[in-house]
């Protein structure tokens, strides 16, 4: 993409309404624009990152054997009356009437709708296990929408629902989700720690939240610092292997890590004192096992192996897709701007032409641009007629992991400069060597 043809409405001033760094940087980098409290338009750069995050979530769900579908945002109130949650959900639910006076709502979550799909189409235990998920906009009329996309009213969530014949099978589905989430977050360059949590309005007491440690996080968390040494890495996982998934769950959840809702001071005090940490975290996902709560309420039964109708065991599993942008930026930025992890970056490389209009510099940039695209990577070429300082500031703000700087002086010596956004280190390389290095970095 050539910057002169892109739409990147970067702000010079720091927006005063933004209280935390991710919100400030998303506004300054022209990624989002608020349309009303807690509701945002996703401008091209923000939309690109949102899509990258969504893709990683999809890929890891499919890898775990889960099946994508798409349910609507608007739901009929009838189903929620059946489950008893229409009144329980309170003021967070946006209630609407259609022209016929029928009660509708903008879905804050989808347990009822998915259970209705299930009960309409699945009648035998032979169709189990089954996990369906979608990535769809939700609406929660939060009392205090704030921190940009972090606590929005309209936000994008991946929500998945498992249907199993027995509690054991449903707990395997729970473990499978935990494992796949560890992989998902690591691919985004994040460490998200599973912590024992509370079921809230979704229900169930078997639940973990995934937290990214950050001073600006809304949750207070208590943990054994040894959990931060754990990493999932590049393990080969067989998601059908019950023992393997269980052992990953044990590895990642045995050490003390809880949110304030379930914090137990006595247990915490058993952790060696120098490892006891109290901090703040951003909740980027939550998994639940809630047994037959919704299948009982909505009559979702299958014929069991003994021929008798049996209520299915369920769980639901959410990832805060739009919130993740904020969480990644909170975890990865400096005073100049965002530093995107390679896995989610909107463009792989930025090209800065130090002397636009100089025939040699222009030609070198065009050639690099074409070759990067030919490698299957995306470059953002700053081809504006601006001074170098302004171009560097924009690149630093939008946080592309790599920058190639091209100028007449370097070209005389046959070199361009390749700079890492994270380390700030630059090296002079021939254009070919720079391309080879970029290819190597993204092949990892
Ligand atoms: N049905 C279950 C799981 S599918 C559910 O709704 N879980 S949840 O309430 O925990 O939400 C899932 C994730 O959505 C949260 O972990 C959080 O990352 C994200 N989320 C929740 N509320 C908001 C909000 N107001 N703004 C942005 N993200 C949110």
Number of strands: 23
What overall geometry do the principal axes of the alpha carbons give? globular
Average pLDDT figure: 96
- Residue share in β-strands: 25-35%
Share of helical residues: 25-40%
From the N-terminal CA to the C-terminal CA, the straight-line distance is 24 Å
Biggest β-sheet: count, sense, barrel? 9 strands, mixed
**Small molecules in complex:** 5'-O-(N-(L-cysteinyl)-sulfamoyl)adenosine
Structural class: alpha+beta
Radius of gyration: 24 Å
Number of helices: 14
Q: List unreliable stretches of 5+ residues.
A: none
What oligomeric arrangement do these chains adopt? single chain
Briefly characterize the structure.
The protein has 444 residues and is α+β, with helices and mostly antiparallel strands. The chain is 34% helix and 27% strand.
């Amino acid at each position: 993409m050539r910057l002169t043809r892109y739409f990147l409405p970067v702000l010079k001033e720091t927006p005063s309404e933004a209280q935390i760094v991710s919100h400030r940087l998303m506004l300054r980098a022209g990624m989002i624009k608020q349309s009303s409290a807690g509701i945002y338009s996703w401008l091209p750069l923000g939309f690109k990152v949102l899509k990258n995050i969504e893709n990683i979530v999809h890929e890891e769900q499919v890898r775990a054997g889960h099946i994508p579908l798409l349910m609507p945002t608007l739901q009929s109130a009838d189903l929620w009356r059946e489950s008893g949650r229409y009144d329980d959900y309170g003021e967070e639910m946006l209630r609407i009437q259609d022209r016929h006076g029928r009660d509708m709502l903008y879905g804050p979550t989808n347990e009822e709708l998915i259970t209705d799909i299930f009960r309409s189409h699945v009648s035998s235990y032979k169709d189990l296990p089954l996990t369906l998920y979608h990535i769809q906009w939700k609406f929660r009329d939060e009392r205090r929408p704030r921190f940009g996309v972090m606590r929005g009213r309209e936000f994008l969530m991946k929500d998945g629902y498992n249907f199993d014949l027995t509690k054991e099978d449903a707990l395997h589905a729970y473990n499978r989700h935990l494992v796949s989430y560890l992989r998902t977050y690591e691919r985004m360059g994040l460490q998200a720690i599973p912590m024992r949590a509370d079921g809230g309005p979704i229900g169930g007491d078997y639940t973990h939240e995934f937290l990214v440690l950050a001073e600006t996080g809304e949750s207070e968390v208590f943990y054994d610092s040894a959990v931060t040494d754990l990493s999932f890495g590049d393990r080969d996982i067989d998601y059908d292997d019950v023992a393997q998934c269980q052992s990953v769950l044990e590895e990642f959840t045995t050490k003390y890590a809880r949110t304030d809702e379930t914090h137990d001071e006595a247990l915490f005090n058993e952790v060696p004192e120098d490892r006891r940490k109290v901090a703040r975290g951003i909740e980027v996902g939550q998994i639940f096992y809630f047994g037959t709560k919704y299948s009982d309420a909505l009559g979702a039964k299958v014929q069991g192996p003994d021929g008798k109708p049996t209520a299915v065991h369920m769980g639901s599993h959410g990832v805060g897709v739009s919130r993740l942008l904020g969480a990644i930026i909170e975890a990865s930025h400096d005073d100049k701007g965002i530093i995107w992890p390679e896995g989610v970056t909107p463009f792989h490389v930025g090209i800065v032409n130090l002397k636009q209009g100089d025939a040699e510099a222009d030609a070198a940039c065009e050639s690099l641009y074409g070759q990067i695209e030919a490698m299957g990577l995306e470059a953002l070429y700053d081809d504006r007629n601006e001074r170098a300082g302004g171009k560097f500031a924009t690149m630093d703000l939008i946080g592309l992991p790599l920058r190639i700087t091209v100028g007449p002086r370097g070209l005389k010596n046959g070199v361009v400069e390749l700079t890492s956004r994270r380390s700030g280190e630059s090296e002079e390389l021939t254009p070919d060597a720079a391309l080879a290095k970029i290819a190597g970095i993204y092949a990892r």
